[in-house]
């Protein structure tokens, strides 16, 4: 089965398509001419307590075949920076760490293909005395070798994470940690290593759906923004995004004006079972600054952790342009909450304030007026507590406090 929905013609050039599980459904649009968009999840969906899957959703044709092209489609650096009102660089030395499973041997070459396309400087390989923007590719223990085996699904995830993180913070060092496998044990080792080697933010674009896991120490690193994707299977909790020590990141559909300025956003939800995750943990307590949100009582989580904190673009209909030569051989359009996590990690690095908070998710709750408040859309059905699956004014679970509008909330 393949997911299909409609978007207004002209929003994006058709380069990819849409999803692998589901029946055709039409999204409302004010325009008369529309085009079909299909996508599928490149890593599948995990409900395992021991293993995660990546959350990248790549455009396909109607038969589920990934569409790659020699020409670019999807949002690039200009769209994200203009749309979210962000600078491109930050003064001083800042690092975004990316944690993924398996290896992508072409990651640096593909990043520089991306840079050349969008007029960004060539990215250097990090060396001992390298300062400024560079890429280090390391194993889960922080060593240059041996690297794990290659995997084309996770390889596309790696391309997405590295290219988006660099697009957002173009002066940042990027440390890519490639875990030996997709087990939470190996991924957790990589997260701990990323924290030990120094990072302003650590992006984790993976997880396990309907897994309300207990406390995971690997994701508890004070003074570091540990961003985690909320998942792509609609309303429901996910691990490790349920942890109260991380920045849980939901997904939206980001609409831009013709000059790339912000137009609107809504909850990413293609059809039942396909869209951003959200939910209340039953095992993890909420932090005091989350329960202090003005409309917390209406959420219905009580004293338990609400997932999410913040959100960003994730809908494959408004996905990112990604270049991948390892498995796909061209330009793709990729979404999923795998897009929103490295995007938010890059924003935290640009802001440079993560170290001032024990848990940097607190920052967005302190400055809700510095975010876009997403008030439309839903990610499923929750009749008892509507703000658990519906966007609304103020805090809601699908989009958290909101999406970036400059750096004021970070």
Structure description:
With 410 residues, the protein is of the alpha/beta class. It has a single domain, classed as 3-Layer(aba) Sandwich (Rossmann fold), CATH 3.40.50.200. It is built from 8 helices and 23 strands. Strands 5, 6, 7, 8, 9, 11, 13, 14 and 19 form a 9-stranded mixed beta sheet that branches. Strands 1-2-4-21-20 form a 5-stranded antiparallel beta sheet. Strand 7, helix 3 (152-168) and strand 8 form a beta-alpha-beta unit.
Main β-sheet, in a few words?
A: 9 strands, mixed
How many runs of DSSP E, i.e. beta strands? 23
User: What gap, in angstroms, lies between the N and C termini?
Assistant: 40 Å
Radius of gyration: 19 Å
Helix content: 10-25%
SSE class: alpha/beta
CATH architecture call: 3-Layer(aba) Sandwich
What fraction of the residues are assigned to beta strands by DSSP? 25-35%
* Annotation field: number of helices: 8
CATH topology: Rossmann fold
Text of the CATH class: Alpha Beta
| Mean pLDDT over the full residue set | 91
The CATH superfamily is Peptidase S8/S53 domain
Number of domains: 1
- The general outline is globular
Quaternary organisation: single chain
Uncertain regions spanning at least 5 consecutive residues: 1-35
Which key terms come to mind for this protein?
410 residues, alpha/beta, Rossmann fold, 9-stranded mixed β-sheet, 5-stranded antiparallel β-sheet, 19% helix, globular, disordered N terminus
């Amino acid at each position: 089965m393949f997911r299909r929905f409609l978007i207004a013609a002209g929003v994006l050039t058709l380069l990819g398509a849409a999803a692998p599980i589901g029946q055709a459904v039409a999204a409302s649009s004010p325009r008369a001419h529309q085009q079909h968009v299909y996508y599928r999840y490149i890593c599948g969906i995990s409900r395992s307590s021991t293993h995660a899957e990546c959350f990248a959703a790549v455009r396909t044709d109607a038969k589920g075949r990934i569409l790659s092209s020699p020409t670019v489609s999807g949002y690039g650096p200009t769209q994200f920076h203009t749309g979210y009102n962000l600078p491109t660089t930050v003064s001083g030395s800042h690092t975004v760490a990316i944690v993924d499973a398996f290896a992508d041997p072409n990651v640096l070459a593909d990043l520089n293909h991306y840079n050349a396309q969008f007029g960004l400087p060539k990215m250097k390989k990090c060396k001992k005395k390298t300062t400024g923007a560079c890429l280090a590719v390391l194993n889960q223990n922080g060593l240059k070798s041996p690297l794990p085996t290659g995997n084309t699904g996770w390889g596309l995830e790696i391309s997405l994470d590295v290219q988006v993180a660099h697009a957002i913070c173009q002066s940042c060092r990027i440390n890519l940690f490639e875990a030996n496998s997709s087990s939470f044990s190996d991924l957790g080792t990589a997260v701990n290593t990323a924290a030990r080697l120094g990072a302003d933010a650590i992006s984790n674009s993976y997880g396990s759906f309907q897994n309300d896991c207990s406390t995971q120490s690997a994701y508890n690193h004070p003074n570091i923004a540990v961003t985690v994707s909320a998942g792509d299977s609609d309303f429901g909790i996910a691990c490790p995004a349920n942890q109260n020590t991380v920045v849980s990141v939901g997904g939206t559909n980001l609409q831009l004006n013709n000059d790339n300025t912000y137009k609107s956003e809504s909850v990413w939800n293609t059809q039942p079972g396909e869209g951003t995750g959200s939910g209340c943990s039953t095992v993890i307590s909420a932090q005091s600054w989350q329960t202090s949100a003005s409309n917390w009582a209406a959420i219905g989580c009580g004293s338990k952790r609400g997932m999410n904190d913040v959100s960003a673009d994730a809908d494959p209909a408004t996905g990112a342009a990604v270049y991948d030569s390892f498995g796909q051989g061209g330009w793709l359009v990729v979404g999923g909450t795998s897009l929103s996590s490295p995007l938010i990690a890059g924003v935290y690095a640009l802001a440079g304030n993560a170290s001032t908070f024990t848990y940097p998710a607190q920052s967005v709750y302190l400055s809700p007026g510095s975010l876009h408040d997403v008030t439309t859309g839903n990610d499923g059905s929750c009749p008892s507590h509507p703000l658990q699956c519906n966007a609304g004014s103020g805090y809601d679970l699908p989009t958290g406090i909101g999406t970036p509008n400059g750096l004021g909330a970070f």
